[in-house]
Specification:
single chain; 278 residues
């Protein structure tokens, strides 16, 4: 690796300036979409789900899976708007119909030895990207929904920031060396602490809730964000790929940045509903 590239690449293996610039740009775009209209977040989240689903499908196809495309695409397009307009019941109905369509479509495509595996891959695509992302639409549908989405994203992002900083500075004990060698217990502790602080500050200042609700939310989201990172690392290892794309310098593919947000979205909706009402 050239000396200039080595200087830009951090101990954790990222091009840090590029990663910061891309992260700031994505955050600014999300804020513009979120506050441009009450439903503006859907204009950002739905295409992101399409991109993420396409990245997963490429990985599955590289692994020999035949994933039904049309029902997944239609379901992904309908799921977030259904959650925003009709709440949990609307999301449940659209998700169920999409899963049914995946099964029927695959059987109509003709028998294969790996039919069950292909159906499982299609259901995973539906559940992992659009279904989990739809919980952010449930957050958005609340009266203070835009601020709830901001808090959810902010807390989850601080999991990555705190874990990265603590891992680089203090990381010595690997958390799951066979899955993600660079993740350490020290980094996980940094994620929990940074998320708890970000949660206490954002819930108090933006949502007018008690500080302890933010601390609880931060600790839970930090744990789930780490689980999401490890889950995606396992998936990529099984499929034999390094990243789900290269469109985001310093990050990989869009799905490589969405993994934590997707896993944390349902928990954020549940916690905010229970602790703050809604």
């Amino acid at each position: 690796m050239p000396a200039a590239a080595q200087a830009r690449t951090s101990k954790a293996g990222r091009n840090l300036p590029a990663a910061i610039a891309v992260g700031a740009g994505l955050g600014a775009l999300a804020l513009v979409c979120l506050f441009s209209a009450a439903w503006g977040w859907l204009l950002r989240a739905t295409p992101a789900c399409f991109n993420g689903g396409a990245s997963i499908r490429r990985g599955f196809v590289a692994g020999g899976h035949a994933v039904p495309v049309l029902p997944v695409v239609i379901g992904a397009a309908a799921m977030l708007p259904a959650a925003y307009a009709a709440g949990p019941s609307g999301l449940t109905v659209v998700f169920g119909l999409t899963v049914l369509a995946v099964v029927v479509w695959r059987f109509c495509d003709g028998p294969r030895a790996d039919t069950a595996r292909d159906i499982g891959s299609g259901v995973f695509m539906v559940a992992y990207a659009p279904f989990l992302a739809s919980f952010s639409a449930l957050l958005l549908a609340q009266p203070d929904g835009q601020l709830r989405v901001v808090c959810f994203v902010l807390i989850t992002v601080f999991s990555d920031i705190g874990g990265y900083a603590a891992g680089v500075l203090f990381g010595k004990h690997p958390m799951a060396p066979t899955v993600s060698p660079k993740k350490s217990w020290e980094g996980f502790a940094g994620s929990v602490i940074s998320c708890a602080v970000a949660g206490a500050a954002s819930v108090t200042l933006l949502l007018g809730g008690p500080w302890w609700a933010g601390v609880i939310t931060g600790a839970v989201l930090a744990s789930l964000a780490t689980l999401g990172d490890l889950t995606e690392s396992m998936l990529k290892r099984d499929l034999g790929i390094k990243d789900f794309g290269t469109m985001l310098p310093g990050h990989g593919g869009l799905m490589d940045r969405m993994d934590s947000l997707l896993v944390c979205a349902p928990a954020a909706w549940i916690l905010f509903t229970v602790l703050l009402g809604g």
